[in-house]
Amino acid sequence: MTFYSAEPALVSAVEDWQAWLAHERRTSKHTLDGYGRDVARFLGFMTEHLGFTPGIRDLERLTTADFRSYLARRANEGLARSSTARAMSTLRGFFRFLDRAGLAHNAAIGGVRTPKVPRSVPKALTEADALEAVEAIADITDTPWVAKRDVALLTLLYGGGLRIGEALGLNRGQAPRGDSMVITGKGNKQRLVPILPVVADAVADYLGACPHALGNDDPLFVGVRGGRLNPGVVQRQVRRLRMLLGLPETATPHALRHSFATHLLSGGGDLRTIQELLGHASLSTTQRYTDVDAGRLMAVYRNAHPRARG
């Protein structure tokens, strides 16, 4: 993102920061765009707040009160605390970059408290609901090959813990055939995902029925016209599935990934292994699933702990 109204030195600094994120940190384009919007919005606010367009030297002189004014504006606009927390994380990273590059040093931002964000607990389906959802998705379309496609997709999401974008980004040559496959996730990080026979069979069944000629470099999951399947189509199908089965609104394509992790934990899987399977950079992200499985842990305690028996 280019900041046309900013001083050339600041524009250059922002571009260098984004280049560093892209090449050194391997940040995805989607995330880079979000970071760029966060910085642009901050600079826009500071232009209004200070009464002039700030340059690098002006950023160095910003006080804790200036940053708090920015937070207050976001709160008054009704922006979510999670969004503001992300924006402040972006700004901290940007200011750290300026400091390391010797362009500007601002200690004030370190004294600004980021709004606390309620801890988000993944919404997983029960094992019975997850299995029923994978099978019942075939019942909401009259086109046999589309039904097989949707079954294959949901089977892959639940059986392999893939993000919807990861699954839809696969090409025909990457279709699961053996007992594992390599998935490229966020930040272009690759991970090895074991493939159950039921997953490979469902994908093979779909490919055998698909009427479109697919080369190895063509999309694995396609829409009715043969182009790469749009996430919106999948979300619409899952909404129809929720109505059919009476599932809660939290039953989304991404919920199948949560269900994959939660059910592995319930079955005795360890957090480190689940972290690798999900492609989480931090174990703390995976540890959210211990909250999801708290009911099982309490049941084990009540049934097994000597002090729980009266």
Q: SSE string, helix = H, strand = E?
A: HHHHHHHHEEHHHHHHH
Strand segment tally = 2
First CA to last CA: what distance?
65 Å
Q: What portion of residues is helical?
A: 55-70%
Let me know the average pLDDT.
Answer: 83
Note the beta-strand portion. Answer: under 5%
Please outline the major beta sheet.
2 strands, antiparallel
Round the Cα radius of gyration to an integer and report it: 24 Å
| Secondary-structure content class | mainly alpha
Overall geometric form: elongated
The total of helices stands at 15
Query: In order across it, which strands form the biggest sheet?
Result: 1-2
Low-confidence stretches: 305-310
What do these coordinates show?
With 310 residues, this protein is mostly helical. Mean pLDDT is 83; it is low at 305-310. The chain has a two-stranded antiparallel ribbon. The N and C termini lie far apart (65 Å). 57% of the residues lie in helices and 3% in strands. It has 15 helices and two strands. α7 crosses α11 (253-266).
Keywords:
elongated, 2 strands, single chain, 310 residues
Concise account of the structure shown:
57% of the residues lie in helices and 3% in strands. It is mainly alpha-helical. It has a two-stranded antiparallel sheet.
Write the layout of secondary structure elements.
Layout: H1 8-23, H2 29-50, H3 56-60, H4 64-76, H5 81-100, H6 127-136, H7 144-160, H8 164-168, E1 180-184, E2 190-194, H9 197-209, H10 231-245, H11 253-266, H12 271-278, H13 283-286, H14 288-292, H15 294-304
Antiparallel strand pairs: 1-2
Helix pairs in contact: 2-5, 6-7, 7-9, 7-11
